[in-house]
TrEMBL record:
Belongs to the protein-tyrosine phosphatase family. Non-receptor class myotubularin subfamily. Residues 210-648 form the Myotubularin phosphatase domain. Keywords: Cytoplasm, Sarcoplasmic reticulum. The gene is MTMR12. SUPFAM superfamilies: (Phosphotyrosine protein) phosphatases II, PH domain-like. The keyword Membrane does not apply. This is Myotubularin-related protein 12. Its main location: cytoplasm. Acts as an adapter for the myotubularin-related phosphatases. Regulates phosphatase MTM1 protein stability and possibly its intracellular location. By stabilizing MTM1 protein levels, required for skeletal muscle maintenance but not for myogenesis. It comes from the Eukaryota. It is found in: Cytoplasm, Myofibril, Sarcomere; Sarcoplasmic reticulum. It comes from Equus caballus (Horse). GO terms for cellular component: sarcomere; sarcoplasmic reticulum. Heterodimer with lipid phosphatase MTM1. Heterodimer with lipid phosphatase MTMR2.
Length: 752
């Protein structure tokens, strides 16, 4: 106990140091926070605790946190706290906020915690009118509403809070969540510096990070691509380009001295090799030039590069320009902005008011259509690699957005290794982290430009979820894994998603950023799942229905399918016609014009042959039994593309199905599997380890008193048993009594 109190005093001193003068006040909340630490480890604390380097900035007492399910004035009183890491609500009755029934707890972020990076919009209520809050306020609201990027909605009543505390907490939250930041001022750096001397250990992570030349050589060997491609170190120390990784793979015939010519632009870079020897490549376009002499030099350079990858009849290349013949980043941004509004629900009344317009609102957002187009494009490229035996070259301005998305989807569909957890994490490292996807800008972590904020990585996870949903036995990980991975984008203790390039990371936190002690900052990766979850909770990240590589004949296995929840998809109607697209002609001049950034619309011809090949390839695959360790294609027609319910609906009580949904199916299947494996164990003791693992997963499901369709996130959410019918939009359907009478009649007819 004496040691714990000493540690608490040290943290109290840490909290007081460095607090900005405008937010310095009597830290009455510190004892409330510190008593949680006295019986905890100093590294990471639970829901209402603080991290070991977290600094308190401002707080307000007597704050009422409303219950989201209805518009009445019910809630919990407590303190609203803002630190340099998160916004936290500390309830006066801690037992009401901490229920042991919740077995899927995040050790870093609690139920009532919001990291500063996770805040999307802040609203204030003035005389029952809701207004967006930003900048300096002349008048302060009586209610505070916070919309989060993980789609949580928090309502805080400030009516009973002291005026000075209201000003302090509202101003502090607005400033620390909306004001532009410098990279070095992110909490990530404070946490990494404080953790440098930590003695905490984490299980060995088997994810391939692709930070060494050997990692790339291993991947080449795994995919049998080392016969035609080579790993190079020409950018070691980032001498050629700061946007490229230090090590990458290029075609073997390509002279290494060509790479620095245009700082890596115009160089075909290897992504993955197919079993038939064909490869998926990507290339960033050369900068636009007006000078004829420079254009001639670029033309000559690209002509030489093209000959190294296009050598008919042995090597044929098809080119896909994702910058001009596919989605734009603006399309993705606009669609997601509309789509997320469907799930940022303030109360039950608003939920039922918008329910009657659900399908029209969902369709008008175009988010599901964008997912369909991404999956279709990946299938088209898969068909070229698999059926036509052609190399495919993806082209984009910087090859760091749509190239990452499409190349990753193709590999998930074609490579069963990428459908394991370690393989998927290695894929994200290779294509997104080392591929130079600008997470810092695309997630707007610095709050410097809303125009740059585009959820490309979330779109990728949504596309992968479609595959996981349609082919569960093919994936070692679950949809819960994908959900918590999407949440981890906004937790600034992991370095994985907080930089624009490997160079930026190394410069600010790695080898080139060392303190006076000569030690680099201690970085955590998001793949260390033990930081966020206890071992028992981590079992929910692993799919117990995953089909191991079969030892029996493939023909003996049949595909497993789950019944779709059609209300989460659009009705089967004729989809909007997409712009006619085709592959580029193979002549060198066309590729050169493309790479030089010229207008290429005249070069993209409608190809009936391409559509015929695609349809034949698609229909042929779906007509055969599914090989879960082979090629895997999604269904992309009509209602087959669905809303990722667990991620988008998990915080809406009205959207739950208590005791139903896929979790109920999963629970029953696990019970059956346990029974079968228990019998098998009596025959063969070698299956003991597998039985124990699946038994643990099943026991975790059964231990919960109230399972819902949105398990494990919505386990304790309150449920409205009766909808609050709106007065507008439903008049044509009759009043509430008529609706109840019709419902009774339909039940009677169903019994006949």
């Amino acid at each position: 106990m004496e040691t714990s109190i000493t540690h608490s005093k040290k943290i109290e001193k840490c909290l007081c140091e460095g607090v900005p003068e405008p937010f310095r006040f009597q830290l009455s909340v510190v004892p409330t926070l510190l008593h949680l630490l006295r019986f905890s480890t100093p590294a990471i604390v639970g829901s209402s605790g603080v991290l070991h380097c977290e600094q308190l900035l401002c707080e307000a007492s007597t704050v009422l946190k409303y219950v989201q399910e209805d518009s009445c004035q019910r809630g919990i009183y407590g303190k609203l706290v803002c630190t340099d890491f998160k916004i936290a609500f500390l309830g006066d009755d801690e037992s009401a906020l901490d229920n042991d029934e919740t077995q899927f707890k995040n050790k870093v972020i609690g139920e009532n915690d919001i990291t500063l990076h996770c805040v999307d919009q802040i609203y204030g209520v003035f005389d029952e009118k809701k207004k967006t809050l930003f900048g300096q306020l002349k008048k302060y609201p009586e209610k505070l509403i916070i919309h989060c990027k993980d789609l949580r909605v928090f309502h805080f009543c400030l009516r009973y809070t002291k005026e000075e505390e209201v000003k302090r907490i509202v101003s502090g939250i607005i400033h620390h969540t909306q004001a532009p930041k410098l990279l070095k001022r992110l909490f990530l750096f404070s946490y990494a510096a404080a953790a440098r001397n930590s003695t905490a250990t984490h299980p060995k992570n088997h994810t391939v990070m692709f930070e060494t030349l050997q990692d790339w050589c291993w991947e080449l060997e795994r995919t049998k691509g080392n016969m035609k491609y080579k790993a190079v170190r020409v950018n070691e120390g980032y001498q050629v380009s700061e946007r490229l990784p230090e090590y990458f793979v290029v075609p073997t015939p390509l002279p290494e001295e060509d790479v620095p010519r245009f700082q890596g632009h115009g160089i075909p870079m290897w992504c993955w090799s197919c079993h038939n020897g064909c490869a998926l490549l990507k290339m960033s376009a050369l900068p636009k030039e007006q000078d004829d002499a420079v254009l001639q030099v670029q033309k000559s350079f690209l002509d030489g590069v093209y000959k190294t990858i296009h050598r008919p009849p042995y090597e044929i290349v098809k080119t896909e320009d994702l910058s001009s013949s596919f989605l734009s980043l603006q399309d993705i941004q606009t669609a997601h902005s509309k789509f997320k509004q469907l799930f940022l629900i303030d109360n039950s009344t608003e939920f039922w008011d918008t329910d009657i317009k659900w399908f029209s609102l969902l369709e008008s957002s175009s988010w599901l259509d964008i997912i369909r187009r991404c999956l279709k494009k990946a299938i088209e490229i898969t068909e070229c690699l698999e059926a036509q035996n052609m190399n495919v070259l993806l082209l984009e301005e910087n090859a760091s957005d749509l190239c990452c998305l499409i190349s990753s989807l193709v590999q998930v569909m074609m490579d069963p290794h990428c459908r394991t957890r370690v393989g998927f994490q290695s894929l994200v490292q290779k294509e997104w982290i080392m591929g130079g996807h600008c997470f810092l800008d695309r997630c707007n972590h610095l709050r410097q430009s809303d125009k740059e904020e585009v959820p490309v990585f979330l779109l990728f996870l949504d596309c992968v979820w479609q595959l996981v949903h349609q082919h569960p036995p093919a994936f070692e990980f679950t949809e819960t894994y994908l959900t918590v991975l999407s949440d981890s984008l906004y937790i600034p203790i992991f370095s994985t998603f907080f930089f624009n390039s490997p160079h930026q990371k190394d410069t600010n936190m790695g080898r080139e950023s060392q303190d006076i002690q000569g030690k680099p900052l201690n970085l955590l990766t998001v793949w260390d799942w033990s930081v966020q979850f206890e071992p028992k909770a981590q079992t929910l990240l692993k799919n117990p229905l995953y089909v191991e590589k079969p030892k029996l004949d493939k023909g003996q296995r049949k595909g497993m399918r789950f019944k779709h929840q059609r209300q989460l998809s659009l009705p089967l109607t004729q989809s909007k016609s997409s712009p006619k697209r085709g592959f580029f002609r193979e002549e060198t001049d066309h590729l050169i014009k493309n790479l030089l950034g010229k207008r290429i619309s005249k070069l993209i011809n409608s190809s009936d042959e391409l559509q015929d090949n695609f349809r034949e390839f698609y229909d042929s695959w779906h007509s055969k039994p599914t090989d879960y360790h082979g090629l895997l294609l999604p269904h992309i027609e009509g209602p087959e593309i669905k809303v990722w319910a667990q991620r988008y609906l998990r915080w809406i009580p009205e959207a739950q199905i208590l005791g139903g949904g896929r979790v109920a199916t999963m629970s029953k299947l696990l019970e059956m599997m346990e029974e079968v494996q228990s019998l098998q164990e009596k025959i063969d003791e070698r299956h003991h380890g597998q039985v124990a693992l699946q038994a643990e997963a099943s026991s975790l499901l059964r231990a919960s008193a109230r399972l819902s369709s949105l398990f494990p996130f919505a386990l304790l959410q309150r449920h409205s048993s009766k909808p609050v019918l709106p007065t507008s939009g439903w008049k044509a359907l009759g009043d509430e009594e008529d609706l109840a009478k019709r419902e009774d009649e339909s039940v009677d007819l169903g019994d006949l």
